[in-house]
Write the structure tokens for this entry.
Amino acid sequence: MTKSIRNIAIIAHVDHGKTTLVDAMLRQSGIFRANQELVERVMDSNDLERERGITILAKNTEIEYQGTKINIVDTPGHSDFGGEVERALRMVDGVLVLVDASEGPLPQTRYVLQKALAAKLPPIMVLNKIDRPDARAAEVLDEIYDLFIDLDATEDQLDFPVIYTNAKLGVAHLKVGDDSTTLQPLFEQIVKFIPPPSGDPAAALQIQVTNLDYSDFLGRLAIARVFGGTLLRGTEVAIVKLDGKIQPTKITKLFTFRGLERDEAEQVTAGDIVAIAGVEGIQIGESITDLANPVPLEPLTIDEPTLTMVFTINTSPFAGREGQYVTSRDLRARLEKELLTNVSLRVEDTGTTDAFRVLGRGELQLAILIETMRREGYELMVGKPEIVVRTENGRRLEPLELLIVDCPENFIGIVMELLGNRRGEMKKMVNHNSGRVRMEFSIPSRGLIGLRSQLMTDTRGTALIHSLLEGWTEYAGDMAMRLTGALVSDRSGVSTAYAIWGIQERGEMFVGPAIEVYEGMILGENAREDDMNVNVTKEKKQTNMRSSSADEAIRLIPPRDMTLEKAIEFIADDEFVEVTPKSIRLRKKVLDAKKRPKRWQEIRASTESA
Ligand SMILES: Nc1nc2c(ncn2[C@@H]2O[C@H](COP(=O)(O)OP(=O)(O)OP(=O)(O)O)[C@@H](O)[C@H]2O)c(=O)[nH]1
Ligand SMILES: [Mg+2]
């Protein structure tokens, strides 16, 4: 009586339309009432996903097509969340590889395809956004074949079906321009081409956890794939921990997916994707098997983190004013909780109990974690992101990226110079004769820190950049860092318009008037290379004499809005970003101006000793 099942993941480069396609699939599967109001990109359900319009976490859903149950995992396309894709691939038997019919394959297309091919998952190629006026489906398909060949795909793997879609309208075509008006051709290909899950319902129980969820009533829920056997509600089973230890437990509830809902089930069988309650303490990658005959599955292994940032308790003079959780114990507990679900993150202790080294895949991944924490009421400080360096056989190695920059022709020179300073090496340049060029560089990951904002400034917001971890390379030596110093407050007080008016010609301000400041807080970017201490609290002297200059109207330039990501990109080694639920402040690590080493002396000394 087991229904026919297909398990698929949708993978692609960022923004190529995965979540939009899942929307259309859900709508057309008849799972919603005809008049049911649905938000756009319904799977992007958490606040930060909706605000930013990107997917951060991989999520499961399910649809029915002519009696076949199709479990779908929507995955994020941004490279910082690649760990989500790696773990989603463990759940499925095939993938939809989406490619924007105008942009073509980009670095994350390569990354996810490589992972899918390595896992021997058959791909269906979906060329999306065929409605774009600049769509070039035929050319893009050629680029995709080239990519497969480049990735050493086997003959079989090259034999993939191709579907052309407009995910926004919910239309799929087998040939560009055929008369289809629905996604039916896509559903058909999924059922026809993606193999049904293997696994025998009568075999020994083998389940692997690939995600965690939490319910107030049921506690921890394991989202898992049943690889073999049948699991009945209420049975005693064994959790095989990552270290091989066995923990007996009783399954209290079982759920299968249906659209955006979950249905309670009495039993689940090999092939299905399920949510399981009664597994307190279970972790991602662990197995659930028979108690009498435990046969655990291989634990999940995923790529190592490449970027690290130190998270510290807030030691600023304003600490504890705006947040609820401020102690090192709070910070530790929160980071440990994050590790349960965020498989690509690591946390290490440092020499002190007040600071933790957090390792991840990129600046955005860590910024999302920090933003989530501040919304939950945490206060903390973070230091400049650093690249993870490895030593192998006495050689110092650092991660290397493939970087693609797409920009208007007239910025080629500027982009090349900027990347040259960051030890980027140009490998290829393609001109599609659209006025824009696409350049490929090989560059140490270090060179990407803070690159995005600088590139945006230098190309007036027109450049698109994408990167992909390529491997490890010999440490490339020093790299140009921020060339400017900071404008630093020399005292505590409240900023005044009059004082800012006097300071603003020195550089660019980050604070406006009537802001409370403290000694050592960064007020702006100095135009020169050293730091400058300034008094931003100065009041205008009252005077009886009228002078034309004193009465000159005070014109303030609006301060640069330092978002969390901009602040993280900006800070130097001797600076922190202070994060609270209400504020983002930048500060020097040493607040006392008299004790603070001069920035350049300090940095030179540290690079000489390294
Ligand atoms: N013109 C056009 N736009 C589309 C189509 N499909 C998606 N889009 C738009 O592309 C943008 C990105 O869509 P998403 O569905 O969020 O892309 P995604 O692949 O899920 O993005 P990430 O999860 O962040 O990697 C949105 O503005 C969509 O409206 C399409 O077929 N045609
Ligand atoms: Mg998405």
User: Anything to note?
Assistant: The mean pLDDT is 90. The pocket of magnesium ion (ligand 2) is lined by residues 18-19, 44, 55, 74 (CB under 6 Å). Residues 137-150 form the longest helix (14 residues). The two ends are 67 Å apart (CA to CA).
